[in-house]
Amino acid sequence: MNKMALQLGLIVSLLITSCNLNNKKTIEDSLGNNPKAESLDLEHTSEQSLDWYGTYKAIIPCADCEGIKTTITLHKDATYEMEEVYLGKNDKVFISQGTFKWRADGQEITLSDTDRPNYFVGENTLFQLDVSGNKITGHLADKYTLVKNSIAFTNTKWKLVKIMGQEVDNEKAFILFATEENHVFGNNSCNNFTGSFELKEGNRIVLSKLASTMMACPNMEIENQFMSILKKVDNFSLSGNQMTLNKARMAPLAVFVAVE
């Protein structure tokens, strides 16, 4: 009786081992036939490992025009802006805004405008996908790749568009950080100003020796706020064509856009 029980237990054990091996082989075969699964690493997805936020540009093929000049800006808060110009038809700029979501694989994004295609997010690139969600192939494939616009903090003219959370409508106000002699200069909406700056680790910045001309203007509010902020700033941040000057981890003191 004990001998029969021992034999029965041995048979059951062999069957379980065989099933586990078969299941393992099935999983391995499935992964081997799925290139996305083979490369999937949730800790190293585009969402987690790339500096994906920023501005991307391309001229997308168009059926009845010379091309669609497309600009997409992705923000850290999962919002986006898109600008499109139909070249050869008119100069009108079509602007759309919304939010986007990352797909489960952390590699693709879907825009809130359901009429828009999905995009695969690569290193400094956005790949427009076809209606089936696949990468576009063929001799025009490169035309559907939007390239990230890399704008440097220094030697770029930054136009002031918001200060202390309030929109600024002034074409004169700007700032520029020139690498030559670490010279900072600009216009505070009324007067020109100048000074020095020093960049430190972690996007930290120190401004010093600030001075400005003394012309009187009808409205000095923006100027006063601008100059006051420059004395407080200790760090900056970049996102596409946008730059902010900040104090510690507070909300941005001033927001600028790059002037092309």
Automatic annotation (TrEMBL):
Alphabetized InterPro entries for the sequence: Cu-R_lipoprotein_NlpE, DUF306_Meta_HslJ, HslJ-like_sf, Hsp_HslJ-like
Chain ranges of the DUF306 domain: 153-256
Top-rank taxon, per record: Bacteria
Alphabetized Pfam families for the sequence: META, NlpE
Gene3D superfamilies: 2.40.128.270, 2.40.128.640
Listed name of the protein: DUF306 domain-containing protein
